[in-house]
Every structure is written in C-alpha cells, then in structure tokens.
Amino acid sequence: MKAAVVTEFNAPWQFRDLADVHPAPGQVLIRVRASGMCGTDLHVHHGLFPLKPPFVAGHEPTGDIVELGAGVTDLKVGDRVGVFWNQKGCGRCALCQRGMPARCANSSSWMSLGGGNSELMLAWASGCQLLPDGVSYEDAAPIFCAGYTVMSGLRNATPKPGERVAVLGMGGLGHLALQLSKAVGLETFAITGQADKTAELKGFGADDVVVVPADGDVGARLNDLGGVDVVLSTTNLAPQIASAMNGLRPGGRLVNMGLPSEPIAVNALPLLLGQRELRGSSQDERSDLAEALAFVASGKVKPKLETYPLARINEVRERLAAGKVRYRAVLLHAS
Ligand SMILES: [Zn+2]
Ligand SMILES: [Zn+2]
To answer: How far is the CA of 172 from the centre of ligand 1 (A)?
Structure first.
C-alpha cells in the first residue's frame, strides 16, 4: 500500500510502499477515500506530539471497510465510515469504567495504528462511525476532527435559546462552529482577522462579522456590540483568547478549543464578578459527532473545502502553514 510517510520531523513527507496490513481482533481495515488536513497536523510535522518517525499521519479519514478483524460483528465489509482520534480506551481504568474512553490516558488513536494519509489504514472498530447516506467522503472527512471538536465545544458551552454566540478564529474549525451554532438556532457572530472573508462568512450564516487584527482588542469590539454569552474559540493566539474573555456578558462562557503555545492570561476580576467561565473542550460525547454529521446530511452545514490529490500532500501542508487554506483542505485518494 502506498502511503505518505513522515520519515523525519520538519521535512517533506515521503511516498513509500508499505507492507500490507491485516486487522487484529477488534480492528478493521479501511480503504481510505478522503482525508482532511488539520492544523494539528502542523504540530505533528514539527514533532510536538509523542510520535517517533517513521509514521503515517492523518486523523480525518473516511473510506470503506475492506476487511474485518476477529470478533467485529457490528460493522460490515463495504460500510462507509470515518475514524475519530481516540478510537478505544484501555477499558479498565477508572475513566473507562465511568464511560469516558476519550479521556483514558492509554487510549488508542491513529498515533499507534497509523493515520489516513495512506491507501489502507487500520482502525479499532470502536473508533469507526458510519457515514450518513448522501454525505460524500470528502464532506464527511473534516467532521471527524474539526466538526466533532466544535460540536462538542458548542454542547459544552450549554447555550440556552436566545443566547448570543461568537466564534473566534475562522479556519477549518471556526467555519464549522459558525454553521453549527446557526444550525441549532443561535445568533452567531464570526470574528476574524481577515476582512476579505466577510462576505463568505455572511454566506455561512454569520449574523455579523467582526474583523479584528491579530493584535486587536476582541473583547472591546464584542462589548461595542453588546457582548456575547458564549465564545467558541478556535484560534491559537493566546492574547486574543484572553481578550475575548472581556467580551463575555455576566454568566458567559468561553470554550477554548485552540492550542496556543503560551499560557492564556485571564484577568481574575471580570471572571469572578461576572461569574464568567473559561473551559477547555475537545472531542467529547460520541453523540456530538453523530449530531454534526447529521447536520451535514441535512444540508444545514456544508464544509467549505479545497480538495487535492493525495500526491500533493506536502504542498497542501505548506499552504495550510501559510494560512491560505479556505477553509479545510481534504486529500482525495484514487479509488
Ligand atoms: Zn485535528
Ligand atoms: Zn482507560
């Protein structure tokens, strides 16, 4: 099987022929049809994750099951599936026993089995989600990281009817967060540093687009508009996250899904006086993934994609690093 292999960090990924693999008990083999490229793949490229080359990245894969491992009874050969990050907990620790395998310290992910930038990939059956009928492989792919992450973020923000949401950062995650927030019926602002995205963001349903440069005061701008109850933050700019906290109304919640390299400096006074909340969120309940996929199937959410053949993966990664991708790049695999 052909795969794009990370042979060393900070170097172009190499196309290699890898030995055929077969699923162990509890696993499936998937012919990959599409795989999204996520901002996290840049961290992987730079060696910020506990991985040792050579390995195959790609954590937004979709494809068809071609082989079942022993004991897999709920999936079938030919099923259209996607695979999410934490595929299986250890099953035995306190968190797994409490039904929280995604929080297990010894969970299995693409990092142990190999990712989707490959003709074929292994996955744990428990990490596969069926694709709804009518949803294409490429539209489904970004839901397995970006869409899942922001749907969990939205649910973890516990928005009430009539509340106002702002989405900070308008990339792969942000443009889906915006559409999902609109899909559940909430007034939603989009915050971006790129003024030329304004018309497109209104097209995604934004009730208002707030253009703030990277060093601008997000909180002040939100307060000019009356403040917001929820900020869904997808940016990696720590000062912007801290600033956005000041744009929350009393009782407001900022849900951080970005991965800034520096600490978020939050002022304690507005936090305690307004009983505001800062919380982190990542891919959480499996129902969040199902809900996000259902919104895509219903047409209420439409990932805005750039698609490329897998052979152009290095160019796509560089384009992502340069901030040029609108809004998610998905690699298509030859069928
Ligand atoms: Zn991701
Ligand atoms: Zn566990």
So the answer is: 9
